[in-house]
Design brief:
Layout lengths: L1 H25 L3 H9 L4 H40 L1 H26 L13 H7 L1 H16 L5 H17 L10 H13 L3 H12 L6 H13 L3 H18 L4 H17 L2 H10 L3 H10 L3
Length: 295
Amino acid sequence: MKQTHIGFVMSALALGLSIYGLVAQFKPSTATQVVMTQKPASRDTNESYEQIINTLNAQVFNLEARLRIIEQHRVASDSDMVKPANFEQAVLAVLEQKQAREQEEMRNKDPAYAFYENLPKDYELKLKTDPEYALQTNKDLNAKILDSSLSAHERLSAMGQLQMNMYVLNKTQMRYYNYETVDAILRIAQQSDDEAIKVQALEVITNTPLTDARVAENFVSIIEKEPNEYLRSMAADGLMLQYYQSKNKQPELNLQLAQQILSLYQQGDSKLKNLLKNNMFNEDMLTELNEQVGN
């Protein structure tokens, strides 16, 4: 824009100089003026001179008009760029786009915790102070987890939120957190064709506070059949947590879990033994399990 502006200015100056030169060329000298006082110039010469001047003047006026238009556009453009409101809106738009991309990446990376971004600021306080709100929220989350028509991401997010609600309310048992909800996530971990989803589902459920023989059986099945070493390791952690959680509350289940763990260790190959040792117990723990089952 600046170069165009300078170009027009130079064109105008050139035209000005041309006019000056032409005027000087056609302006009679003193001697000529004396002669002209004695002998008028011909009509053709005067008409030619006036035509040139008029043409040059018209071109100058045209250039000046175009320069004014360009200048007005430039000023308007500069004004728009520096308006605080426009600048603020542009910045906010960029920030919103960046936040949207980050949220999408977070949902894909860890869908079980995607719910965080949509929680109201007073969410935890409301859970603690409004029992009806907490009950309805947990009921709705339970329904989402059990709804197989929803995507795995949505169901994992609902499970993550439901478990968080338990911790917020300082509970290890809740009406809408039950075996059906835990089993629904375990089935995602076992049946999904997406390895990332399988990993994320098992990570959500490994530390479940629900102690149940059926949950332990699912962990045993994953340990025995799953080819993914990380998933087997997570299932081993989950199985061991089931054992510890049942120690003082469910002695019969605790004995059953001790037998299952020892059976895996004793009958498994060296790879499985190493997995159990690395993720579950040391020699002291092995001794404790043997004593518990009466070996």
